[in-house]
Prior knowledge:
Nucleotidyltransferase, domain 5; Carbohydrate kinase; single chain; 21 strands; 6-stranded mixed β-sheet; alpha+beta; Carb_kinase_FGGY; FGGY_C; transferase; globular; 2 domains; 17 helices
Amino acid sequence: MILGIDLGTSVVKAAAFSRDGDVLATEGRGVKLYNPRPECSEQDIDETMEALGAVVRAVLEQTDEPVEAVGLTGQGDGLWLLDERGRQVRRAATWLDARANPIVEEWTASGVFEEHFRRNGNVTFPGAPSAIMAALKRDEPESLEKAATAGYCKDVVLQRLTGVRATDASDASEPFMDHSTRQYDASLLELFGLEDYERLLAPIDESPGEARPLGKAGAELTGLPEGTPVHNGPFDLPATAMGAGVTRLGDGVIIVGTTLACEVLTDRVETGGEPGGQTLCALEPDRWLRAMPAMVGTASMDLTLNLLRSEHAEIEDFLAESPPGANGVGVLPFFSPSGERAPFVEPHARGQLSGMTLGTTRSDVVRAVAEGVGYAAKHCLAAAGLKGELSICGGGAESRAWRQVLSDVLQQPLKVARRPEVGARGAAMGAMISLKIDFDHDAWTRAEDEVQPGEDLAELYEEGFEHYLARVDSARDLWGR
């Protein structure tokens, strides 16, 4: 069997797959996020490793087949600092971290932000490695001086499991890559004032990357035999696109998770238009994913349900009780304290609820949030260049009613990606590709279901989208004041 490991922001998961792509066992363990200050979001690397060992051992207890290979994926961005022995210098700053908000504002005002996008195809937001590194350089330089590696989550795990210091092209895509060579561009480090820290960047594997043998420490942690091949796959956004079967140019996927990640496969690096989103290397040397990882995913619904003192199980009923259009209630679901990063960047973006009357119900508010996330997805997919089929996955997509709302708002059929653990599935596929293990790609990525949009709602939601864009434009004039 093939083992896929997904090192998420709040949960570390492992899934065992048969050669046919069937899920044999899954296991997850929560990992804590620390907030030493309101703007900080940190994770303990040792706690992440403990969770990884626990989920792998739990999966092995549920199965009898030998593990042919392990594929790694996990959260992107953030800054994970290791010393020469691969031990943490300090707790990792995750992609949710906002301590670099003032620095991103300075870079925006000085032109650094836009120049970076024009050269790299990625926007710099507070949780990006460049921004966090610059914040530590200003406020905590001793951490950078003690470090031997400034890496990404799954790269840290690779080093702890195999002893190899490396990263893959998808994680390295932002912020320091020259996409024409898929190697670091020293002048981009200079642009951010970080040239003294080039030594901290791990070597980039050539796609699809090689598998490394599991070392003694990794074997003791996981219970896997020493020498088991471990592949450092794409991080979670590209890995999920792989697991969802996005292979044709113009096809895309929506991941309705903490981040609303909208991705479209392309054969070029786009650096024109308004800066927004990410350009991520795919496994193939001439393919990229134009990704719009908006900050308006399931966290927007979580906040709404919490304020209404309701449970996730009630979403289906709420959406059934309020009609399309939410009786005139509209939501801008920009509730993240870090603002928004796709398809536009506004660190001070904040949410809005409008159109309420004395007759507004809880169901109307929940539907308005569900529709607002749908409008945000439509905005992102248009910016990413969607032209083909669209798949959907993620925790929010588990709701059949919310899937239907998204399909209706987008006026696009949605293929429900094969579950569970779509990201871990992509990681397992990456490991097989690296090791040249034959597998049936179509079987591994077949859709479980397809949602058809209500065509009678096309006019309603086209008008709703126009109103959404107008509200966004109006709000952007106020956010910066």
